[in-house]
Design goal:
Layout (H helix, E strand, L loop, with lengths): L1 E2 L14 E4 L16 E4 L1 H21 L3 H7 L4 H8 L1 H9 L1 E3 L5 E3 L3 H20 L1 E2 L6 E7 L8 H6 L11 E4 L3 E7 L6 E8 L3 E8 L7 H6 L6 H9 L2
Antiparallel strand pairs: 1-6, 2-3, 4-5, 7-11, 8-9, 9-10, 10-11
Helix pairs in contact: 1-2, 1-5, 3-4
Length: 240
């Protein structure tokens, strides 16, 4: 893990050539929040993520029910214009639609693309909050959980965002009802925080990030008891 530097891309560690908004403005609504934070990125990383972000907001608008998302898909809305401009994206979304047993139209998302966006956003939020830059692939256990299906969020992530009286903890709202997030400690790991992101009150994004170096327990570090969460831990167990 390295200290954040203004001239180094937070995603690949190369020379930064531009600044990127965190969170991306494409996921927010106009008027944008004042003093929206930016972080250094190289043009290659920035371009590489932009296509996934466009896919993410189009997908979110297709499955979302909030007014902010519905306004994007009406004729002349930002998503309508994006699909008109990018026929390949339009075809990918259309081909992912299918009817369920009840006759409802469902969509099969490109999960890898969704998770790349969530991982990238969580990393940016982490750098802003802690001033340290872990490797992008150290953001693990990344998943998306839509509001409009049965509760599927990891129990530890759900419980940890509430107080002992089961009242919601204070989230950081970048734009109320549009984008908010929280970092919390869970029982799953002694070495990772859980970051939960709320997109347009329609999708939860969840990922686990290393606890900043100065926050590691001296006792746990000395004893080598740093526990890895989720898939990373499972893979380690299988290799034994």
């Amino acid at each position: 893990m390295r200290i954040h530097s203004s001239d180094t891309c937070i995603y690949c560690g190369g020379q930064a050539s531009e600044r990127e908004h965190v969170p991306p403005r494409s996921l927010l609504e106009r008027p944008f929040p004042q003093n929206l934070a930016t972080l250094p990125a190289c043009s290659k990383c920035n371009r590489g993520f932009s296509l996934d972000e466009e896919y993410f907001i189009v997908l979110l608008s297709q499955i979302g029910t909030s007014r902010s998302l519905q306004d994007r898909i009406v004729e002349g809305g930002s998503v309508d214009r994006a699909l008109e401009r990018n026929h390949n994206l339009d075809d990918r979304i259309t081909s992912a639609l299918y009817p369920d047993e009840g006759g409802r139209v469902m969509i099969q998302p490109e999960i890898d693309r969704v998770n790349r966006v969530i991982r990238k956003i969580i990393l940016g939020l982490y750098v802003l909050r802690y001033g340290q830059v872990p490797p992008l692939d150290s953001v693990v256990g990344v998943e998306a959980y839509p509001y409009n299906i049965d509760e599927m969020r990891p129990a530890d992530a759900f419980v940890a965002t509430h107080t002992e009286r089961f009242q919601p903890k204070r989230w950081k709202a970048v734009q109320k009802g549009i984008f908010s997030y929280i970092f919390v400690r869970t029982d799953k790991s002694s070495s990772h925080y859980c970051c939960v992101v709320d997109f347009h009150a329609n999708i939860w994004g969840v990922g686990y990030v290393p606890i900043p170096k100065q926050k590691f327990s001296r006792h746990a570090t000395a004893a080598g008891q740093l526990e890895l969460p989720l898939e990373t831990n499972k893979k380690a167990n299988k290799s034994k």
